[in-house]
Amino acid sequence: MRMEAKATVGQTQIEALVTPEESAQTRPDVEKLLEEAERAKRNLWGGLAAVYQREADKLTVGIREAALTDPDKLAALCVKLRHLIDELAGSSVEELVPPLARFEEALDSLRRIIYRAKDTLVGMTRREWEERVDEVDARARKAYDAHDGTGWRRAFNEVQALLETAWQEEFSAMKLDDPAYVRTRVSRVVAWASRLHREIDDVSLTTAGDLRKLQETELDRIRKWYRDEVALPLVDLEKAEGEPDASRRKADQLAGELERIEAALERVPQIGMVTDRGGGA
After folding, report:
1. Which of 173, 197, 215 is the last residue in one of the domains?
2. Same domain for 169 and 212?
3. Are residues 80 and 100 in the same domain?
4. What confidence tens digit (pLDDT) does each residue in 91-102 have?
5. Nearest to 156 by CA among 106, 204, 229
6. How confident is the model at residue 279 (pLDDT cuts 50, 70, 90)?
7. How far is it, in rounded angstroms, from Cα 206 to Cα 242?
8. How many domains, in total, are found in the chain?
9. Distance CA 155, CA 146 (A)
10. C-alpha distances in Å from residue 120, one per residue of 113, 124, 148, 192
């Protein structure tokens, strides 16, 4: 936006031109970031894809509006979108995202559902499920050892698809307003939040120098994120014990935040580090 002003003071004609400071985030860079955000959707599946799309769509709308009126807000929103892409989708097709720990957690959750099933689950016997899981696990480990980012993501997406499909069948037999189910759901979220809080305090950083400053800045952002979006709402969740439906919705919302914070925390030790491909994390 630019403004022109003219005034006459006595015999003197005054003219002024006011233009906003040029943003550090140029228009081509913004378009490139939005294109990357759109491509990143292809690297996600199921619940993660839903969380990513909801947040990315909201940021994209804000970025397009701010690009015309508010350079400072534009830069802040672009930083948030950059974080979202890196946290949930990874910044490169070669990058091993998600990390091994999250893959193993999804695999363990799938195995627990399989073991809880009394008969068949999604049309497969327990033996058939175990063979399928072992095959995907072997393929994932091979891709991980070979640093094959595409193969690794494909294997993780398959595990996540199997997990969500199995969970949905198990879930269909549950009553969402059953107080016993809600208590279990809430207790799991509380335990998850407690574990993540300890991990935030225990994260290992580079010993010194500029890299440590970068990592500390990101860790401070995560601490504030956890405090505002998890710790404070957790108090309301525990107070809503007598309202099963409200408690379940709050627990589901907190679980989405915890998943994103966990993904961001996993990246902290690699921030600024040089990878074996010659790039920076």
Report:
1. 173
2. no
3. no
4. 544 456 677 877
5. 106
6. very low
7. 46
8. 3
9. 13
10. 11, 5, 34, 30
